[in-house]
Design brief:
The chain is α/β, with parallel strands linked by helices. The chain is 26% helix and 28% strand. Helix 4 runs parallel beside helix 5 (153-162) and helix 9 runs parallel beside helix 10. The protein is globular and about 65 Å long.
Length: 384
């Protein structure tokens, strides 16, 4: 746990789930820069008495610091929402101090102050700006924040095209602010997302199937090469298996499992609301008749009953925003072991250099290599 001290107060903040040895804080210099700007006497404090919306707050630092102004938070991350709830409670805020909306819910009708944490995904920023633009008026104060490496010319062009004229601040501690003046004359057009594409003709049972991709999910424009490799080495199974697509993204792996074994019952789970929506739409568009599936937004596989799964398929991420970390993969592997029945299997694809086999042997006591090439490896671990 770390202490963030700002002009709004001092706050004890942590990420979710909490890891005692997690080296990363629940905020960064961009969050601090934005909070300072809101009370800057030289530039003029921002009037927060109206409707305040916070988009993309990564771990609830902005929402917690501004709880007295009862902001609306809009987030695509289940973990960010849980972190926000925990941080609000930890700092003595009223549980109803902030209204927490997902990226798939309808934004507020009116926003007087719009605060945005620039996301890693330009597509997600585009989608969220389109969705909230109708709530912005000529007097709305729009301030976005990000680290310098996150803000590009393309980022500024999005603000210019969807909201209005845009300028940036000087960089402070490698963070920068974006100031945007709403232009009511700009047309308020719908978001172009989701996107759809047909899978290639050489990827087994899912060849040619339609994939639906909401903004911000991994490889929303094309099939990523790791998943392509995995599709060529999935286990051939029959019968009423309970199969989990863990960290499902757009659901291609789970769809392949359903097409390969129509008797299976699939569970698609991800911490991204957009990912689970994508997986559900992909499944509905391309699954065989009578195929069964559940769709869960949550912390990995934690919501599944222990010993309830026969097979877990996983292509774990190795980034948390801009940070490189194996903490997410470790959490996924531990959760998979708990959810699997005795004899159940976890199949994982990953970059060879990540050495997932070492972690899997520690957790499962075994790990075999199913397939590999110079870049990727498919691993199998069995719950004994």
């Amino acid at each position: 746990m770390n202490r963030l001290t700002t002009s709004q107060g001092a706050f004890q903040l942590t990420r979710f789930p909490e890891h005692p040895r997690d080296p990363f804080r629940a905020w960064d210099a961009a969050d601090e820069y934005l909070l300072r700007r809101l009370t800057d006497p030289e530039a003029g404090p921002v009037d927060l008495s109206g409707a305040v919306a916070v988009v993309g707050d990564r771990w609830g630092a902005l929402t917690t610091a501004l709880a007295a102004h009862r902001p609306v938070q809009i987030s695509d991350s289940y973990l960010a929402r849980r972190a926000t709830q925990a941080n609000l409670e930890r700092n003595g805020a009223d549980p109803a101090a902030a209204r927490l909306l997902t990226s798939r819910e309808t934004p507020p009708d009116r926003v007087d102050v719009l605060l945005i944490r620039v996301p890693k995904s330009l597509a997600y920023l585009e989608d969220q700006l389109h969705r909230i633009a109708p709530a912005v008026h000529a007097g709305t104060v729009v301030v976005a924040a990000g680290m310098v490496k996150e803000i590009h010319t393309s980022t500024l062009k999005l603000f210019e095209r969807i909201i209005g004229p845009t300028r940036t601040s000087l960089a402070v501690r490698k963070a920068r602010l974006i100031f945007c003046t709403p232009d009511p004359a700009l047309p308020r057009t719908p978001s172009p997302w989701p996107h759809r594409y047909a899978l290639p003709a050489d990827v087994g049972p899912v060849s040619g199937r339609t994939v639906v991709n909401h903004a911000g999910i991994f490889c929303a424009e094309r099939l990523d090469i790791g998943t392509r490799f995995f599709l060529g080495h999935l286990p051939a199974r029959t019968g009423a298996d309970r199969v989990v697509d863990l960290g499902c993204g757009n659901g291609v792996l789970g769809l392949a499992a359903a097409l390969g074994n129509p008797q299976a019952h699939l569970t698609f789970t991800d911490e991204s609301y957009a990912a689970v929506a994508s997986a559900e739409e992909t499944f509905r568009a391309s699954a065989p008749d009578g195929a069964r599936a559940d769709f869960l937004v949550g912390d990995g596989i934690a919501d599944l009953a222990p010993g309830s799964a026969d097979l877990v398929l996983n292509n774990p991420p190795f980034h948390s925003h801009q940070a490189t970390t194996d903490a997410t993969a470790r959490t996924m592997f531990l959760g998979a072991r708990a959810a699997l029945r005795q004899g159940g299997e976890l199949w994982v694809v990953g970059n060879r250099h990540l050495a997932h086999h070492t972690r899997l042997r520690r957790i499962f006591g075994n790990c075999t290599t199913v397939a590999g090439d110079p870049k990727f490896v498919v691993l199998r671990a069995v719950k004994r």
